[in-house]
Amino acid sequence: MIPQFESERTKRADPHLILCGLIIFAIGLFKKTCLADGIQPLVAPAFGANYPSFDQAWIGALAYTFQLYFDFSGYSDMAIGISLMFGIFLPLNFNSPYKATSIIDFWRRLATRRCRSFCATIFISRSAATATAGPYVTST
Which structural domain, as residue segments, surrounds residue 23? Predict the structure, then answer.
């Protein structure tokens, strides 16, 4: 991603990229303000101070999953749209997790970029430390 900041292409305004970025940003803003925030009244009774009824609990739990989905999807779209307006292409970070066919596929789709970064940071650095220090040395 750093080479994109150094590129001459990103230092000039491109009307096509600005328009595409505004459209993607508007879609993300709609997901956040209308869909995610619109679901909130269904979520509140399930997680309020009073004990919810059976149907309020189920509706609240299901609505909460969609609220989280539209929040994260909306924020991702807004970030992609803003970066596109500046000529920066962000990697895919959200791949429709509710279209997954298994729980493994769900988590893989939920935050593809974040998961890869996390796994690379934790597991690759840990395996490198084990390889250089030996298999029986533990870090403190």
Answer: 1-90
Q: How does pLDDT run along the chain (140 residues), one tens digit per residue?
A: 666 667 776 677 788 999 999 999 999 999 999 999 999 999 999 988 788 899 999 999 999 999 998 998 899 899 999 999 988 887 766 667 777 788 787 777 766 655 555 555 555 555 555 555 555 555 55
Distance of CA 24 to the CA centre of its chain: 15
Place of tokens 């430390």: 129
Residues 97 and 84 in one domain: no
Cα three-residue angle 79-85-87, rounded to 5 degrees: 100
Q: Which two tokens stand for residue 37?
A: 């925030």
Cα–Cα distance for residue pair 25/28, rounded to 1 Å: 5
Residue 13: helix, strand or coil by DSSP?
coil
Same domain, 55 and 1: yes
Domains of the chain: total: 2
